[in-house]
Amino acid sequence: MSINKIRFLGMLALFSVCGCSNDLFLTHNGNMPSNERIAKVKVGDSKNQVISQLGSPSSVVSLDQNTWIYMSSDIKRMAFMAPKEVNRDVLTIEFDTKGKVENIKRLTKKDGVEVAVSEEKTDALGHQPGFFEKFFGGIGNYAPFPGIKDQM
After folding, report:
1. Sequential DSSP letters for 109-121
2. 148 assigned to some structural domain
3. Residue 19, CB half-sphere, CA atoms under 13 Å: how many?
């Protein structure tokens, strides 16, 4: 084998090893308070007391304004691989109707459950518009100033 082929193979091996990135990025998301601050929150505390101890929640349940959620997670990313959640910490605080702490619950990634996404399709009930209605059904319905059409 000639010296040029050996050099070429050596450079090829070097580039293939260097081309593979092993950069590891660990990202922390969320605002989980420290364990010491969480321990200060007791059943019977008001919402203002909880905010002064823990700060604002990450999320408030939209259908039940009396459930606050504090959460954080650590995500590991490596080169072109899919991100992977390494750690998750969730704190839920439930308030009664008077705005006092009723329940405090702490969950981790181990408490989570994988949910399988279904590929099946659900048909929508109701009217199924045809071709012409889909493409020409909006003609004449344009109202640049809503409400004026109702006043005429």
Report:
1. GGG----PPP---
2. no
3. 6
Q: What tokens appear for 14 in the block?
A: 């070097």
Overall number of domains in the chain: 1
- CA distances in angstroms from 131 to 46, 137, 139, listed in the order given: 58, 9, 14
Segments forming the whole domain that contains residue 66: 20-112
28 Cβ neighbours under 8 A, 6+ residues apart: 72, 73, 74
Residue with tokens 């203002």: 48
CATH code, domain carrying 45 = 3.30.1450.10
In this prediction the pTM is: 0.59
State which residues of the chain have pLDDT below 50: none
Tell me what percent of the residues of the chain surpass a pLDDT of 70: 85
